[in-house]
UniProtKB/TrEMBL annotation:
Alphabetic keyword roster: Acyltransferase, Cytoplasm, Transferase
Single GO molecular function: glycylpeptide N-tetradecanoyltransferase activity
The species this protein was found in: Tetrapisispora phaffii (strain ATCC 24235 / CBS 4417 / NBRC 1672 / NRRL Y-8282 / UCD 70-5) (Yeast)
Main subcellular location of this protein, as a coarse class: cytoplasm
Protein's recorded name: Glycylpeptide N-tetradecanoyltransferase
Gene giving rise to this polypeptide: TPHA0F03040
Amino acid sequence: MERKLNPETDKKKIEDVLRLLKLNDVDLSKLSEQQRKEMKDHKFWKTQPVPSFDEKIEEEGPIHSDKTPDDIPNEPLPMLPDFEWCTVDIEDEGQLENVFVLLNENYVEDRDAEFRFNYTKDFFKWALKCPGWKPEWNVGVRVKSTGKLVSFISAIPVDLRVRSKFLKSVEINFLCIHKQLRSKRLAPVLIKEITRRVNKENIWHALYTAGTVLPSPISTCRYTHRPLNWSKLCEVGFTALPEGKTNPQMVAQYTLPKGPLMKGFRPLELKDIDETLSLFNRYQERFDLVQLFSKEEFKHWFLGSTDSKVSTESEVIYSYVVENENGKIVDFVSFYSLPFTILNNAVYKNLGIGYLFYYASDADFTYTDRLNPEASEKLKKRLNSLVKDVLIIAKSNKMDVFNALTSQDNSLFLDDLKFGPGDGFLNFYLFNYRAFPVHGGITETKKYDVEKRSDVGIVML
Ligand SMILES: CCCCCCCCCCCCCC(=O)SCCNC(=O)CCNC(=O)[C@H](O)C(C)(C)COP(=O)(O)OP(=O)(O)OC[C@H]1O[C@@H](n2cnc3c(N)ncnc32)[C@H](O)[C@@H]1OP(=O)(O)O
């Protein structure tokens, strides 16, 4: 977390945790072109409808558009002997538990096995059961003899806008193979199977993210981390005391007020949905890569449930609005919670982690150019207040660190609100679609790009 570290052991530990935070086990994004796998060595990816690394994109659009669901096989590819395909019924508590046990034990872990993601049933209900979800898009592989779930991949439906074009699409997430089944080329088989099932529904595009560099990212964002409970982060070995600093100085540096400061800041409610969605839609127009939300989807993603005001997922998603003195909603902000389990610590069992999700503000709506200096100043001021209030709420909900990417307009507040750059990068990919690069909010030297900000307006879990 802290970058001015001295002792080698602490440095190693921080590197491990930052690797963990970027949701992937290998980060190749910092390797030079020569060190990366070349296109010809991507035995699987070179056969897929994705742009190759050196491809010069002349025009944006689908790579193939000539297939129909009837051209797609009705049966999956053969599975390894002793294993079998399954559709994981996520409405069955037992099967849902199989998924989170698989992910908690195999998704990502630091080298010393001290921290692990603590996925919960509520998190998966929120992440996988969005409007339009399809049971058969939760694909698993089980051991034939025992029924043990050893691999998983999921898709959810999304409508995307890439610049001015609209794409009916899916988001692919939670690809996971049990540690003992790694490097057996099972991932390509899972990817082909989810592709088959999605194609059968006449959908031909997908959005996915990975820390790993694959052919070929449409954008790359950087992870950033804002300590909320510095003492605890230090005690559990998550961060170390920088040289020349004292503990009280570090605590003081990250101290936050007790409660939100913005006038009119309050939780998003069912009655606000229409107004907030229209504010949000207008705000999102500025970005080149966005997810479009129907009213039902907006309710699901920001209130946690479509059929009840008080949902069980309320511990997962936190959404707020700012209502001005005329009762108009002028800002919206949200974040989600995904904690770590701390293994082998006598005092602390959990590390609370908040992730910045979507937000919107009308602060610069009167300007046609969002990068106009006056417009930027107005938005910067508003976003600083808005995200500061969110940090306060996250802290009061026992979160110890708060993460954000360099996407959206985040570079306007990252430095001011003391988000430190992580060493993780997240690459965004489109399947079966060629697109010009979308700016990820980092400069050539990987610093926050305060001037251009980012054109990525999508946040994936
Ligand atoms: C129209 C609908 C389309 C739908 C599909 C759209 C595409 C969706 C794509 C999926 C989006 C997922 C989004 C997320 O969930 S990203 C999160 C990924 N999960 C993890 O990092 C969890 C821990 N790791 C694991 O479980 C395994 O290491 C995984 C499963 C990642 C690889 O297992 P394993 O280590 O045992 O490897 P293998 O021998 O079976 O296979 C090797 C091949 O797999 C390629 N590989 C490795 N990692 C990834 C990766 N993260 N995305 C895509 N491809 C990946 C690799 O380059 C090589 O291909 P090639 O280099 O030779 O060509």
